[in-house]
């Protein structure tokens, strides 16, 4: 079957689907499935905009709300993960995944589903060491810390995914697995993004947690986004025994969703011709969720996952064939995910803007139904209970917020050997979140929708590529590859936040033209939405 893969969508759904229609008209190709690797921005209304970690100038309604309201319907089944620029309050309603609109499915904090026999997994968010060992404690209304920590990857999600034993066909992450750049054309990458050089050479670019998952899962395909550059790699995995067959992963990172860019790719994936056309639960993943349910944590307290170190009575939460069989029997062998999308918030109305709409913490009926069906903890319900218990003890919200302010950016010991989360790179292709001059007011948002100005597409059709089956890197691309084993240590420079001591640091860098200069270390993130900004950086 044909699978379309998109990079950072940034809420431009009309543009993304129109590009697919253009592809069909020009090349008579239509995908069976569309995957989006984060920064999807499922923004329903003005309150959602306030929950998106971007400066106010980039808070635009875009076009998702039209699909949420039912005005439009996605023309192809769309499955996506979260990134670091999302309506976190909306996605938080669906920690185990669910429909954000008809025919558009979110994988949750981490998840595995099946489509036509193809097994698709993913993990949402980006890695940040000081939040990695915390629970999912955040809920709207967010403060300046939690609006960011809400999308940081947690160790419990990585732990769950590492319990998988059956092969994964496709896996998605927003940030790149650390070290993957050593398995592709590194020279060309640094030519396009020269400001990555220091991190690439020190092997600190990317997520160590994603790297750990890549080594463990060994999927056939791994797709990422985040860094706004197209990059392909081919990684041959080491075998653990002579009996184990060699495995390899074809990695592809996609660019952001803008005209004339490589934001969308079509690949051919082997599938089961006898399988149905419905999105399905994965029985092993459901069994793992049940097995790990006791590990759910909704506090800020940092803790490590069980491991074989003599401190835990149980550390292996992988599931038996019997446990998988029980899940199948519970579902009467019908794994089809129900189409139970429900509106849980008012939809944006261009004729009646509500700039003062406040975000609220919502329990989504999809999550309630899913948890009841499989006996799982509803994370949002648990958070609500914790808040009520806190109020019952007489703890005022102001004290609670001050506590989060003081701990939200504190560095916690990481299970990785180093933490390089203080960014030394400056990526002019991403949104800048300035922490030094005070963040943008979370109450400020723009409701100027882009759909009223339909995009113009280049006659060269340069924003689409149809990928061959192999998706392998050419011999020239592999010049810089040494088949090095992926590193499993170190913090990520793709994170968003810096400790207070890092904020005063400066660096001397060079731009892509080789011009040196002094730059403050703020974030790698800067302008990504407007095409005019893109023209300037290009």
Automatic annotation (TrEMBL):
Query: Which keywords appear in this protein's UniProt record, sorted alphabetically?
Result: Hydrolase, Iron, Manganese, Metal-binding, mRNA processing, Nucleus, Zinc
Amino acid composition bias (Polar residues), ranges on this chain? 415-427
Asked if the Swiss-Prot or TrEMBL record annotates the protein with the keyword Metal-binding, the reply is yes
Residue ranges annotated as coiled coil are none
Could you tell me which InterPro entries the record lists for this protein? Calcineurin-like_PHP, DBR1_C, Dbr1_N, Metallo-depent_PP-like
Q: Which GO terms describe its cellular component?
A: nucleus
Which terms under GO biological process does the entry name? mRNA splicing, via spliceosome
Q: What are this entry's molecular-function GO terms?
A: metal ion binding; RNA lariat debranching enzyme activity
Domain Lariat debranching enzyme C-terminal residues, every copy: 235-380
The prosthetic group or cofactor this protein requires is:
Zn(2+); Fe(2+); Mn(2+)
Locate the compositionally biased regions of type Basic and acidic residues: 385-395, 485-510
| Composition bias, Acidic residues | 396-405, 431-442
Record localization: Nucleus
Q: Which domain of life is it from?
A: Eukaryota
Cite the residue spans of the region called Disordered.
385-519
Q: List, alphabetically, the Pfam families matched.
A: DBR1 (PF05011), Metallophos (PF00149)
Asked if Transferase is a keyword of the record, the answer is no
Which protein family is it in?
Belongs to the lariat debranching enzyme family.
Name this protein carries in UniProt = DBR1 enzyme
Natural source organism = Melospiza melodia
């Amino acid at each position: 079957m044909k699978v379309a893969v998109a990079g950072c969508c940034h809420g431009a759904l009309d543009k993304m689907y129109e590009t697919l229609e253009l592809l069909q008209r020009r090349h008579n190709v239509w995908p069976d499935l569309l995957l989006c690797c984060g920064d999807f921005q499922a923004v329903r209304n003005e309150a959602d905009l306030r929950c998106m970690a971007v400066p106010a100038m980039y808070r635009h309604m875009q076009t998702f709300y039209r699909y949420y309201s039912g005005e439009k319907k996605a023309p192809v089944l769309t499955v996506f993960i979260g990134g670091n620029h999302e309506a976190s309050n909306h996605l938080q309603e669906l920690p185990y995944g669910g429909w954000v609109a008809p025919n558009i499915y979110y994988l949750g904090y981490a998840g595995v589903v099946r489509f036509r026999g193809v097994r698709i997994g993913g993990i949402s968010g980006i890695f940040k060491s000081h939040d990695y060992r915390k629970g999912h404690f955040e809920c709207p209304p967010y403060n300046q810390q939690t609006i960011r920590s809400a999308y940081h990857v947690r160790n419990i999600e990585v732990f769950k995914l590492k319990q998988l034993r059956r092969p994964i066909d496709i896996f998605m992450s927003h940030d790149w697995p650390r070290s993957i750049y050593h398995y592709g054309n590194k020279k060309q990458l640094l030519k396009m993004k020269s400001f990555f050089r220091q991190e690439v050479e020190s092997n600190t670019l990317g997520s160590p947690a994603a790297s750990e998952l890549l080594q463990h899962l060994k999927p056939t395909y791994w797709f990422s986004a985040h860094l706004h550059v197209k990059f392909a790699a081919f990684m041959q995995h080491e075998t653990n025994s002579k009996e184990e067959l060699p495995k390899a992963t074809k990695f592809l990172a996609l660019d952001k969703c803008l005209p004339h860019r490589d934001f969308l790719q079509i690949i051919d994936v082997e599938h089961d011709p006898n399988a149905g056309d419905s999105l399905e639960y994965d029985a092993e993943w459901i069994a793992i969720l049940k097995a790990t349910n006791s590990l759910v944590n909704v506090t800020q307290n940092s803790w490590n996952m069980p491991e074989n170190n003599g401190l835990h009575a149980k550390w292996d939460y992988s599931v038996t064939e019997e446990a998988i069989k029980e899940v199948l029997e519970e579902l009467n062998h019908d794994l089809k995910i129900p189409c139970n999308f429900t509106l849980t918030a008012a939809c944006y109305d261009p004729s009646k803007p509500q700039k003062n709409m406040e975000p609220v913490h919502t329990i989504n009926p999809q999550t309630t139904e899913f948890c009841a069906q499989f006996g799982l903890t509803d994370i949002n319900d648990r958070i609500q209970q914790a808040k009520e218990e806190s109020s019952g003890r007489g703890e005022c919200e102001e004290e609670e917020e001050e506590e989060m302010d003081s701990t939200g950016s504190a560095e916690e010991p990481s299970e990785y050997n180093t933490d390089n989360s203080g960014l030394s790179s400056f990526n002019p292709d991403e949104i800048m979140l300035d922490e030094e001059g005070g963040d943008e007011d979370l109450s400020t948002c723009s409701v100027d929708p882009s759909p009223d100005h339909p995009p113009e597409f280049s006659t060269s059709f340069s924003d689409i590529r149809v990928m061959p089956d192999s998706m392998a890197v050419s011999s020239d691309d592999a010049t810089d590859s040494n088949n090095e084993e992926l590193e499993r240590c170190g913090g990520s420079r793709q994170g968003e936040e810096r400790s207070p001591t890092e904020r005063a640091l400066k660096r001397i860098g060079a731009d892509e033209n080789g011009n040196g200069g002094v730059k403050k270390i703020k974030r790698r993130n800067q302008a990504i939405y407007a095409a005019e900004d893109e023209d300037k950086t290009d």
